[in-house]
Every structure is written in C-alpha cells, then in structure tokens.
Specification:
single chain; 0% strand; 11 helices; mainly alpha
C-alpha cells in the first residue's frame, strides 16, 4: 500500500514521465533524487514498519508492551552511546576486510555480478548522501537514520528475532540468524560483515534490556554517524569514497574490540 501511495505521489510530481521513463527511479540522477527519497521512505514503512505492527495486532497485544517499549534509563542510554563510539574502529576494520573479499576463480561470474550490484547501489547511496545544506542533512538524518532505525529494529529485532527465538527455542540463535537476514536483505555484499555484526549487537541490546529503545538508539547513532561523516567530508571538499581507508594501527582495532566487549558486558550487568 505504501509503495502504491508513493507512486501516486510521484505521478503527481512528474506526471506521465514516471510511466514513460521508469528508469528515473533506478538510474541515479540528482534531478530525480526526491523520487528516490520518497521510495526509500515508502519501502521503510511498507516492508519494515507495517508488518511488525500487524504482527502485534494479530497477537492481540499493544505495540508498546509487545515489543517492550519500556522508557529508557539514562545510564543504559549512555552505555549505548559509549558502545557505538568504542566500536567505530572495529566496524571500520570489518568494512575494509569485507571490501577486500575475493571469491574462488570458479565463482568469478558471481563475484563480477556482486561487484556490479554493489557499484550500482553505491551510486544510489552517494546520490542520497549528496548534501550541501543543513536542510539536506536534516532530511537524510530523518530518512536514513531515524526512519530506518525505527522501522528496521521493529522488523528485525522486534518481529524476526522474536519469531526465530520461538522456533529455535534459543535467544542466541534467534539473534544471529535475524542479524544474518538483516544484513543479507540489504543486498550489499561488500558491507555484509559489519552490518551482520551490528545486527547481532542490536539484538543483544534488546535481549538484555527487554526494551527496543536501546537497539533503535544504537541503530540511529550508527546511521547518523555515517550521514554526519558524509556531510562533513563534502563541506570540506573531501571524497566520500572512504570504504578502503583505515585510520588506526592494528592495535587500535584490538583495543576497540576489547573495550566494546567490556561495554556490552557492563550494559548486560546494568540491565539486570
């Protein structure tokens, strides 16, 4: 329904051009960026927000109680901020490692397809992240950080993780399988590893706290950092292509890993 409404809005904006030339929705073009933003919003609402809401309704539960929207506690909120900051170098290292992934020679055709798909998605991402004003920054923080965090956490942690935990009767299996699905559904093969680990981290924040607010906050902060970084780089005329750039020595990543694990353990202990 949300996708249909989005197309109606786009038809009102672009008229018959949207019918005659549907490629404007897939080929990155600054002129048609509003169309991509509208479709992104519709996709987040239609595919990720509405299904978990319907799940709660079919279970006969209020959304707030079904998904554990208990008011966040200040000390746990602070720990979530700390976890995101401490894990940033670790996520950077995982991103670089993932970008350097090579498949065996007999899978070269698959690897070429993955690279083409990744390059196409990157073009769209760079178009969405092209910002020169605070207004554009605000729009991206809303779409890419806030809407994505709320809708995807409701879907993957609130609904998918819950269902998988019931099926496997093991919360840890539920967390990691949900994280795998969360990363795979983005269809960004060379960003799969960091997104997979992030998804698992969000899952444990939800498991230990019993409140979806903390995983939503962590997801929002992670995405907001990426949007803010893109805005900063453009304001200083720097390249957005920082996927293969490392900023720390090897021991910096080890320290990041150790401190992140410690912060998670503190969060687990404080949640009790």
């Amino acid at each position: 329904m949300s996708i249909v409404l989005a197309f109606l809005v786009l038809f009102g904006m672009y008229g018959m051009e949207i019918i005659r030339n549907p490629a404007i929705l897939t080929v990155p073009n600054l002129q048609y960026r509003p169309a991509l933003q509208i479709l992104l919003f519709a996709q987040s609402v239609g595919f990720f927000l509405i299904p978990p809401v319907l799940l709660a309704i079919t279970e006969g539960k209020r959304i707030s109680s079904f998904y554990g929207f208990k008011p966040p506690v200040l000390k746990l909120t602070g720990l979530v901020f700390l976890i995101i900051v401490l894990s940033t170098p670790l996520m950077e290292w995982m991103t670089v490692v993932n970008q350097q992934m090579k498949l065996p020679e007999f899978l070269k055709g698959v690897e070429d397809w993955m690279r083409r798909s990744e390059d196409s998605l990157m073009e769209t991402t760079l178009l969405l992240l092209k910002m020169s004003t605070l207004k554009e920054l605000g729009i991206n923080l809303f779409l890419i950080a806030l809407v994505a965090a709320v809708s995807e956490e409701l879907m993957f942690r609130g609904a998918v993780q819950r269902i998988l935990t019931r099926i496997f009767k093991n919360p840890h299996v539920g967390i990691w399988v949900a994280a795998f699905i969360f990363s795979a559904i983005h269809m960004q093969f060379y960003g799969f590893l960091p997104r997979f680990i992030l998804g698992a981290g969000f899952g444990y924040l939800y498991l230990w706290s019993g409140s979806l607010w903390y995983s939503i906050l962590a997801h929002f902060l992670n995405n907001a950092f990426a949007v803010g970084q893109a805005y900063y780089l453009q304001k200083h005329n720097l390249s957005l292509d920082v996927e293969n750039v490392t900023y720390f020595a090897w021991y910096g990543y080890v320290i990041s890993f150790v401190l992140t694990i410690i912060a998670f353990q503190i969060f687990k202990k404080q949640s009790k």
